[in-house]
Amino acid sequence: MILTPADGDHGVIRLGTKPPSTTMIPVKGYKQDFLLPDDLAIRIEDLSITYKINVDTKKTLKNAVMRASKGEKVRMRQVEAVKKVSLDIPHGSVVGIVGANGAGKSTIMRAIAGIMPPTTGRIMVNGKISTLLALGVGFNPSLSGRDNIILGGLAAGLTRDEIDSKTDEIAAFADLPDGFIDMPVRTYSSGMYGRVAFAVSVSMTPDILLLDEALSAGDAAFKEKSFLRMRELVKEARTILIVSHALATISDLCDTAIWMHKGRILAYGEPAKIVEEYLKFLEVGTLPSNLEDM
Amino acid sequence: MSAQESSTSRKKSATAPLIQVFEPHKAKTPPLIPYFTEFWNRRSFALELARFADKAEYLESKLGKAWLILNPLFLSLVYFLLVTVLRGGANSKTGLSTLAHILIGIFMFYFAQNIISDGAQSITAGGRLILNQAFPRALLPFSSSVRAFGQFWPTIPTYFAVVLIGKIFYPKTHIPLADWNYLWAPLIIAALALTAFGLSLIFAVMNVYFRDTSKLLTYTTRIWLYGSPVLWKPEMLHGWHRIFIYLNPLGPALAATYHVWIDGVSPSVAELVGMAAWIILSLSMGTYFFTSRERDFAVRV
């Protein structure tokens, strides 16, 4: 396990053990041209993400008028979700991200997916991304599982032809009880709902798969099936980033882990070691000794 | 922080790597060619989203999609009662043409209103999609527009059915049923749709920052209806008062609707110019306002 410096300036962290490639892919068409090493799936350069949230307890028109009459501004709080992260993730890496709530795990995943814009820094992604950041995105509870497979697939970026050719396969993977696939998903249990959502996401063949707490879908048998499917994707040398509080999953599935804390990368390295240290932190609430002042 | 371009993705060839770069931006539009290429590539998402939203809405209804016709038909009858019978202005000579004018006017106005109001809510209602998938956000208001068109087109045969039946009872009423000027109709409908879509982009952004926008729109569109040549004829405005038709983004198209569908004449040059001007204005302003703000949506919805 490698701890990052206490001042948070960790330089560029390169995951994996292989030496960096010297073959570069030119990326042109921007204000400046870039070179991206061809072995990298994701390069994050000095990424910070900050956003403002309105902390007014009463967001009423009356309050707004009163405030304006007194010349007061809206009370905003600045949230520094990700702070100066620089990270190189090679193709084929399976990276687990752990950290307490508010550590910036989901924010960094959304930034990699292009959903949340960087405040400073840059993210370069080499490959087709599929995200499973929440279960059932794009789903309509009134529609059947089959209809929602189409909707979920289209939302995830599949074409209609691709979905049509995969619908039966996805339905089979979800392994719902007889007839349920043609019933409205509002009649599903949360486990069944999660199965369909997970099945849609892993039916794609992305170069990069981003999963946020998605492996907790379904019962024990489905979890095992999901795990095996993840293993298949790993074998196909896909790049996978997993955010999970299920630490056993991180240890078993990932080849590298990152521990995020208050928007920074606190430590990275072998998953078992990271998880062990993180568990100690969860139990006693202390950070590794040289980082307590972060 | 430099206000640089936002994200783009490009695929140089089938075998070339797909590289996406995400950079900071302030209120600046993303590169528009890659944006609209992606928009076009993902159009089936918007089309299916519209189709499934319709399917879900009428799934539990006994009358199902018949409501697409019944709803504007009932509304038109209510307005017809208000405008003619209660006002005491109905007679056998003008009754049918007034009904026909209100019918087509209401159908057209509600088409535009549905595009605007559903589009305005599309971003805040699509919060989970916005937070969890990357796609050109303009697809959501576009999907609302597609859905509005799907709800609108069945009202056209309804209009002709009502006029046809009316003509049996009032054969002397002058309302064209087969006329070359109907060739203007697709153009007018397209003008109305494009103008309304541009406005929906503006209202969708406003609704993200100020959630009361969609609620205020309910009342605004009602007043907008009364201020449009739907319940009254365009010729009722004389002299400089006619400017009010052209200050209304939907005014020229609705006035042209009256002339084509009820008078059986072609739209005036002023109406055509007015339609073109409002299309350009609303689409350019809407596209700029929307695309320059859309990457903010993920932290606002």
Strand composition percent of chain B: under 5%
The shape of chain A, in one word, is globular
Oligomerization: heterodimer
Number of DSSP E strands of chain B:
2
SS element count, helices of chain A: 8
The ordered H/E elements of chain A are EEEEEHEEHEEHHHEHEHEEH
- Average pLDDT figure of chain B: 86
Helix proportion range of chain B = 55-70%
* Distinct helical segment count of chain B: 13
Low-confidence stretches of chain A: 290-294
What percentage of the residues of chain A does DSSP assign to strands (E)?
A: 25-35%
- Kindly name the structural category of chain B: mainly alpha
List key phrases describing it.
heterodimer, A: 294 residues, alpha/beta, disordered C terminus, B: 301 residues, 13 helices, disordered N terminus
Describe this structure in words.
Chain A is built from eight helices and 13 strands. With 294 residues, chain A is an alpha/beta fold. Chain A has a seven-stranded mixed sheet, with helices on both faces. In chain A, helix 4 (160-174) crosses helix 5. The two termini of chain A are 18 Å apart. The relative contact order of chain A is 0.17. By secondary structure, chain B is mostly helical. Helices cover 65% and strands 2% of the residues of chain B. Chain B is built from 13 helices and two strands. Chain B has a two-stranded antiparallel sheet. In chain B, helix 4 (95-125) runs antiparallel to helix 6 (139-152). The longest helix of chain B has 31 residues, at 95-125. Chain B is globular, with a radius of gyration of 21 Å. The two termini of chain B are 24 Å apart. The relative contact order of chain B is 0.13. Mean pLDDT of chain B is 86; it is low at 1-16. The chains are: A alpha/beta (294), B mainly alpha (301). Strand 8 (120-126) of chain A pairs antiparallel with strand 2 (19-22) of chain B.
